[in-house]
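Why do we care about 3D structure at all? Because function follows from shape, and shape follows, mostly, from sequence. That is the central idea of this module. The next example makes it concrete: a single protein chain, its amino acid sequence, and then its structure expressed as tokens.
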Amino acid sequence: MSGARPAPGWHPLRALRRELHHRWLARLPRTDQLALTQRNVYILPTSAGWMLALTLAVLLIASINYQLNLGYLLTFLLAGSAAAGMLVGHANLRGLALQLQPPAPVFAGQRCALRITLDNPGARARHGIALAVTQDLEGPPQWAWTDVPAQAGAVVELAFVAQQRGWHALPRITAETRFPLGSFRAWSYWRPATQLLVYPEAEAAPPPLPPARPQGTGRAGTRAAGNEDFDGVRAYRRGDPLKQVVWKKAAQAWATGNSLVSRDRPQAQPGRLWLDPAATGLTDTEARIARLTAWVLAADRQGVQWGLDLPGATRLAPDSGAAHRERSLEALALYAPLPAAGATP
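And the structure:
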């Protein structure tokens, strides 16, 4: 009997549980502000809590079997402490307000920092509050622990690594506490609504910037010496040829006491630096974008003006500065080249 075998460790009940859990989380609304209430705070025993329950069951059975009054006392005292710890733990998380500050764009492969503010309007302090990114992780979550004073706030910073360029929804965040005894875990899930802009990862060792394109072609760029056009007039300077002196205006200049008037030659205009995928000399789309990203950063460091020409998407006129750099990086992050003619969709 042929057929694909399930992956090692696959179990139908485990797969069903994971699918139901995923669908349940997908129904949670996305918001940048979350108020923890009785409706969205969940609580279950931890592994230590289950061991405590098993120990209490053994103590109870032994007390019944041997008619130990002190055994009854110890069993119900521990059970009452565990029940009180469950109520305190749930109340320790319930009532907090979480707010996310919009994250700044990052480059692919870099850590994105999420700054979260916890507000405690209650009259008692909250201890042992933990936050972590718990979605799409390769390893165990990195928990950040904090205490929130009464009628005050606290700030927690989380981090995760963004791998692909473009706009991305922020991963799910989990808030939890095991205060006071550690026998119960109270938690809540949070799906932020803010999206993160991920810039492309720059090429590690890019080649030098491409040469600038000359401004103007044809007759304007190939004038013969001695036949140049002139932009206007200016005051005469020592060394100007006499043929450039405007003699008709010279008489007026002498009458008013001014110097001679000379024609002004047009100043040579420097070329413009244009960055486009064809200039990279590469064929792979992501490799082109990585090289263009490195060129944008290099041009910004050198203080030169550059233009960005992405066929079928964006064309940014030559400019410089932080705002132009951010626009260029955003255009590269969102660039999706058009399919070649005749290509199968």
